[in-house]
Hints:
Number of strands: 0
Strand content: under 5%
Largest sheet: none
Region (Disordered): 1-33
Shape: elongated
Amino acid sequence: MGDNAPSASDLEAAKLNKVTTSEATGEPSEEEMAGFKKIWDDADGDFETVKGLDAFKGSKWHHNFEPKSAEDFAKGVLKGLAFED
């Protein structure tokens, strides 16, 4: 080991912080979806209007992505279904 490696006594004296974790479910949370739902609702559900927003300038939308609701739009964006790689 190099000169900067911690000694055994350093490791024993180290304190770990307790943190709360959550398990990923694969589904976006309502908090994550809220912003994208608002974008959809502010555009009165018009996908062409959404695509024209500055926030999505330069984005290449997936040709099969055709959301019909705020929920479809939000889930599609957050799950990576809305844009081409």
